[in-house]
Structure formats: structure tokens, C-alpha cells
Amino acid sequence: MVLRYRNEKVTRETESSILNTYGRQQISFVRGKGCTVWDSSGREYIDLVAGIAVNSLGYSHPRLVSAICNQANSVIHTSNLYEIDNQSVLASRLAAHAQSAGWKVFFSNSGAEANEAAIKFAFKATGRRKIVSMDNSFHGRTAMTLSVTGQRKYWSGFENLLYKDVEWAEYGSAESLREKIDSDTACVMVEPVQGEGGVIVPGKDYLTQVTEMARKNGTLVIMDEVQTGVGRTGRFFAHLWEEGCRPDIITMAKALAGGLPIGATLVSGSVASAIRQGDHGSTFGGNPLSTAAANAVLDVVESSGFMADVSRKGEMLVSGLRRVFEKAQYVHEVRGKGLMIGLDMDSKSAAGFKSFAFDRGFIVNVTHEHVVRLVPPLVIGVEEIESFLSMARAFASSYVHAEPASGH
What we know:
Blueprint: H1 8-14, E1 29-33, E2 36-39, E3 44-47, H2 50-53, H3 62-72, H4 85-95, E4 104-108, H5 111-126, E5 130-134, H6 143-147, E6 166-169, H7 174-178, E7 185-190, H8 206-216, E8 220-224, E9 249-252, E10 263-267, H9 269-272, H10 288-301, H11 306-324, E11 331-337, E12 340-345, H12 347-359, E13 362-363, E14 365-367, E15 371-374, H13 382-398
Helix pairs in contact: 3-10, 4-10, 11-13
């Protein structure tokens, strides 16, 4: 039985009780299967946002649903005062994706928490307090992760909360980073692809240069894989596209449990050796339900050919969009890696594309005000991609542009 609570009367009477932190669209999705969702009126949409890169297996995936239901029927929560079998299995599986032995995992409930833990662990392991982060980055909304988020718009009204010992390097520039790292630097925080910053892919070998430069100074590298991890780019971690990239700490969340809250902070053996009981904790982190879901997600993502298929479908989307918009002056660039794609337009065109797509049953997202971000479920099908590209062609042929292409 599907319960549909939301209607106009319910919306009017209850929306005022929700704190006004989101600019919500007045639509509620009540059911989903694969990459398709249905709203409360019965209209269907192909979802290319996936809960902001969270619903890695789409909706109602049988393996994920079975794992969640079976675990809920057994035990949902016990706390980290006791052994949690699902958690131990998941930790071993995640550590196996690191490039060396001895890695350990701390579980939390979100990407911000995973990054917060990473910074604490870096401080503890190095005895240092300076952080170098990147312009245009996004690492979370807690006081510390906001402090290392390189987009000033998120700071407004909270400047007094910000941690002061942070320096900023230009993303993608090894030279800029070289000028910032010194013997006082505890850690460098970097995303292998900037997500909220507009799907920015750095140049060849940049991530390798970051880790090599940091290591020369005894500085740790925190690789923020919250949005890119779990196969999003066609590798389990996006930094694995560079064999020479060797971070000391890796953070992840979003897609890991296919929709249930979870965060994970992976630390190398040398960092792990500095952490003692009581240094950090989480009531709900790594609970039996979320870790059962995450293990089910890994069963699918780690299966033969799955991530190669993600790369293939990503290339299909990127090349298709480039053909569609090759003569469109209002499109600056189509970029991305795997199924993490940015269609860089001016802000008016991006808003117009989002509205045009939605009216035709496609859900997309605009980030950084001018980049249409596509982060669909990793299980999206070729026919669904072709349908989306057909819609994009219709937009390109009908859209009347009245703003210069450089108007970001």
C-alpha cells in the first residue's frame, strides 16, 4: 500500500511549521521505480538529480529494498557501544578500495560529519592547526566545514563562527597550492571534482601533484569524495583515475547507502595510529540499518562491468549534449566525468532549461546559478538518456536567447 499524505490542504497547513531554509518546489514525489518518480497527482518524471547524487540505485531497487526490510525486521539500532556486524563488513569493503593496507573507517550520518571528523583526525595526527582549502569548494554546513568551504555566499551571517586558520588555493593550480602549504599545515582539503562549485574537473595529474606536494611538508590530504564516491565517475573513488594520487583521508556519504543517511571517514594506517578511544563518536553512525543498505549498494556497484557501464553512459550523455548545443552561443561548456555532468550556460538559460525539462517530465538541478548539473541514478538506462537528449534538442531548437554567453 502506498500512502499519499500530501495534498494542497496538507501543504498549506503544515508548510508553515517547517523552518524556512529551503526554496522548495511545490511538488511531492510519492513513488519511484528505477529512474522514474511519480508525484502526488500521478504525473511521472525521469530523475536526473537522484536526491542530489544520493539515490545511486534509483528507486525501489529490489536488492536495496530487501536489505532494508530484512534488517528493519531484525534490529535497526543498537549504538556503537556494541559490535555491529554489518558495520564491520562494510568497513572492510571500503578499506579494500584504498591503495594500501591498514586503512580504518569511522562512520557518521552525513558528508558534513565525515568532513568534520576528517579535520579532527588530521589535527590529532599532525599536531598542527592550519588548513588549506580550495576556492569554489563545498565541504558542508557545520561551523568547521563551512570554514573550509570556498564559496563566500554560504558564510553570510555566520562569519563569527568561522575557523580562522584557513588559507585558500586556486582549484586546479598546483602552483597556487605550493605557495600555501608550509610546515604548519595540518591538511589540504580537495574534491576530485568540484560538485556544488559547478562540476569542475581539474587538469591531468593535478590530484597527484596535490598529494606529492603535501607529503613533502608532512601535510595530510583529505580527499572529499562525498559527491564523487561509490562509482559516480566510473571508478569507486574519483581520485583513483590518477594512479599517483595517494590521499591520507577519504570522506564519503551521499550515494553510499542508496538513500539512507550515512557518512564515512577513511583514514590511512598512520593516521589511525594517532586516534584513541574517546577522540570522536556518533550515536547513529554506522547503525545496522544504514550499513545493511550500504552493503547492498556495494553488492551492485562492485559487480562486474557496473562502473565501466557508468563511464559508457556518461560519455553518451556528454557527447550527446555537445552535439545538441554545439552551435548554441549561450552554452559555455559541457563537462564532467562518468555520470557527474555539468552543462555550463548563462544563468537565464540554465533556469530556462531546468523549467523546460521539468515541464516535459525531466528533473534536473542548477548549481552555482549557471550550471545544469546531471547526477542521475547510476542505473539509468540508454533509452532514458536518449529520451533526455531528445528533450534537450527540442530546447535547443526552440529557445530564444537574449543574453551574452559570458553572462555567468
